[in-house]
Known about the structure:
Its EC number is 2.1.1.72. The chain has 1224 residues and is α+β, with helices and mostly antiparallel strands.
Amino acid sequence: MARPVKLFYVYAREDRPFLERLEQHLVLLERQGLLATWHDGALLPGSDWRRVIRQQLEQAQLILLLISPAFMASDYCYGVEMQRALERQRRDQAQVVPILLRPVVWEGAPFAHLQVLPANARPISTWANQDAAFAEVVGGLRRVIAYIMEQEDQRVYNRAQQHALRKGSSSVAAEVLISTPAALTPTLLKRAIERYRKQLRSYEGFATHELALRTAFQRLLEETASAVNLKLIPEQTLPNGLRPDGVLRDVNEFFIRGLWEAKAPHLDLEREVQRKIEAGYPLRNTLFENSRRAILYQDGQRLLFNLDDDSELRDLLTRFLTYSEPQIARFEAAVEEFQDRIPELAARLLEIIQQEATQNRAFIAALNDFTTLCRSNLNPQISQAEITEMLVQHLLTERLFRTVFDNPDFVSRNVIAAQIEQVIRALTSRAFNRQEFLRSLDHFYLAIEEAARSIRDWTERQRFLNTVYERFFQGFSVSKADTYGIVYTPQEIVDFMVASVDEALQREFGCSLATPGVKILDPCTGTGNFVVNILKRLPRGALRQKYAEDLFCNEIMLLPYYIASLNIEHAYYERMGEYEPFPGICFVDTLELAERVSSNGGTVVRQPRLYFVEENTQRVLREKEADIMVIIGNPPYNVGQKRENENNKNRPYQLLDQRIRDTYVRDSQATNRNMLYDAYVRFFRWASDRLRGRDGIVCFVSNNSFIDQIAFDGMRHHLLQDFTHIYHLDLHGNVRRNPRLSGTTHNVFGIQVGVGITLAIRAAHQQERRLSYYRVPEDWRKEEKLNFLREKRSMGQIPWQRLQPATPRHWLAPQSAPEWSTFLPLGTKEGKRAATSERESDHLTLFAAYSLGIQTSRDVWVYDFDRSQLISKVQQMIEVYNNDLARWQRANKPADLDSFVSADETKIKWSSRLKEYFLRQVEARFQATSIRRALYRPFTSMYLYFDPLLNQRQGLWPRLLPTPVSEEENRLICVPGPGNRKPFGCLATNHITDFDLAFEKIQCFPFYVYGKDGNRQENITDGALALFQRHYGSQVSKWDLFHYAYAILHHPAYRERYAERLKYELPRLPLLKRNEAFRAAVSLGRQLLELHIHYERVDPYSLREIEDERFSYRDNRHIERLRLSPDRRTIQVSPGLTLADVPEDCFRYVLGHRSALEWVLEQYQLRRDQRSGIVLDPNRPDDPDYIVRLLKQVVTVSLQTLTLVEELEQAVTPEDWQAAFPSA
């Protein structure tokens, strides 16, 4: 395997959305190690962007020109980057590929002689199915990448051959013409061989037996094999019963790439080899060695190697590890080309179907019936495009299901395939001949079929089919794969989970998976791996009954449903020797089944219906009536689209989502609970209910954010109510939480979120609720985690940690600092609800009301440094919104709003709240009075368009700062909300504050709140004032308490001791034993508060200004980028001005993950938003020195803050802290 090809994009900023969609389609190539992409979005703050871009352009092997009107108009893209790219192409240093994004006249351009993509020179933006266009582009790029890799391999080989000839290579090396992959470099081989020799020397004199020497050679093979994405599996039993010392396999493990057999040096190698051959050893790519000599059988040849010679050993390793049997090579090429051709053929089929849907009466009738079936049985919101995709999928893959599974009657035997075939026959009866249309795919089908026949083990064939299927979906529909979270479960996880459930059944209930009446359901079966595993585990005598009566599984996607049916039926056939259709598989949406039970006057009514076809209906009804005891599987992990403009949402489930609201949401203390509608959370809620109050087990492998994130506290609470014992095995892999990890190497699914295995037991005879937890080392790679599961085999072998959380909501919350519960809460949800309803709370808190920071969901549209620019943006967006609203009303308000409204992010940014207003037909109106000042980031003030329609969530801000006048008198303390993963901190302000100020989920506590009549009310509770006055005297005021809180929240010892508590809860405040300590805290808190609120009034720090006369800063004070030097001693403001002598101490004042100064350096730069094209310019024409002055002022603020905090440490010590309430 060669090193990844380095790719560089040349594109205009306006085309960033196209770039990001192309990157989505290229993800698979990156995961396969074929591609390494780079564009200017990867630039680090403070880097010299021109130098970095030039360096990346010079190193790139593949350069993509993203052609559009904006590209042609860009002086930098067209005049600099493109010219250099073409020069490198002329010198054969890189491949340049133009990609047509949007229509533009490009004939006659310098790149016009190059072959463009898409191949038909049709710009991507004009395609009806842009996914198909991007997939065709990726297909073309695959061929370019293969060519680049081939050329690179040839260059490496030529260098190696020249080196060998100069050194006088052996006859074997001279005759073997192997193209050495770039990853198996001479340096890598040299170092691996040196380590092998060293290990052999360590055995000299006492260990010359086969086992010791075999270990050394095994390590050599393992190390070098991993470099070419192969793995060596020691002593794996082959289908024919033979057990070689090592089996060389690809990473998917369904192809055997080679066999290795080790012998002791004193044995006659030739005689030993002959014995193995007589025993039936295959000689396809088989290596025999005794640490001195080696014999390699390959491609009908028998080659000898002297292992004492490093050169021959290197040649042996290269030949053995890079060999690919012809049928495997043909398969790999076929699958790649199959994926590349899918978009083209699918597009042609879609055109035919669309045409026939208007002309072919028989097809129209069949399609209408099929559409009605899909909408009434699968998903009432399924679109016509999705239904058409099902027909295309069936047409393109049906042959493989018949041939790979040796099941020629598949279409007639499978109840769903037979129904779809009726529609296909109506289509092909007039439109085209199926065989002729698919003839161009014959050689792909044949290669895949040939490879499948070479795989005798059915488990390996399952993995093989999963790979083919995944490639199909990546080629056909990236968004579909993302919506359903298509990720297949490694066999080690399946084995572990099934064994754990069987073990738990025996321990808790005295039965097993084989016991009649123990009914098992996989609700999202994918390709059927869990059911197949269970079938293999069951005793043969129990198999017939379990297969016919106790096993159930559901699947909603057509292709995996087909594969699951065939996998399960074949597994039964292998065990029983007879074919029997599997009656337990249903083509149905598991969560949709929950929607078919409604409440009518307090009585549960089961709604009668047809589930696609009669036989499928009978299966579904049988499953619904079954007393399920075990639910096991891998639920979808996708939470839905990231942006409202994407139009790629997960569907809602009215009744199930209401159950979530009544349980997980109702008992959550979190503010943002959107993640509780993640697909896997829905499956946990459904599974808990599906046991219907009976004893049973739920075992899922899933996203494990629910273990510790604050949004899932209500879910954790109910899981411990619903089950008596919960085990959770934390497999880590959360790349977003730990950027040092890689999804492809550390995550068992190759995804970005953490993964865990949960086994939840409900046993009525167990009175005590138990929670057991184990986490594997976070830095373990995927292979280490899977090996761990393989070795442990089941939950019973895990050294569990018994968790005893203080509350059911916080499983992993720290148990230290017990005095925390005796401190005064800053605020509570109960107190907040009481304050907003104007009633007294039963819980004593410092503040009555508080609010989240404002969430806009469209920051670049409603924030700006420039007031006039903000007005222009908002007015444009309002105009687009109102035009869409009027157009929608004229069109009789079509239900599919997402497809109707404009999705152009250069004109409007949609959000769920904005669409709610749209559906209510609320017209947007611009109001100049809605323009307010806001604190966007620390010491970064911007204009904000403060409007309920254009802000996603305003919280209580209309009551906290209703008018600009209120900003003059009110003060707020902002702290991180529960679930914050950054270091704790706080910041005072008198402006509306953004949700992402410096921490996560900012909560803001005001001194005043305002009524609808405009009258203000103090927000410090009377109960808190009375508490403090009892301790420190009647002269204590509510402002004293406000300043006291700000001081304590800055105390280093407080932040350190309660760091873990502050991740899960809002702050609590101790009282102080000494009156003088309290007074000191009040005074220092007041000074800190005034310093941070009035930061623009402090004296600027005297940074030394160094001016470059070549670039007059005084003549042009427009700042584009602020650069901090690596030693953090200077700040380059512009080519003409550098600020020097930045004090090192100022970086100690940190808010979140950055110092206050670094926040300003990041924010006060010229920035272009890639999606909208909006430019944010912090320069002030009316005050050109503002940014430089602000930098100096923030240095002053930082140093003065440190001084005040040090005084606070001296005046108030932890020994002064005491409880606000008596300890329970």
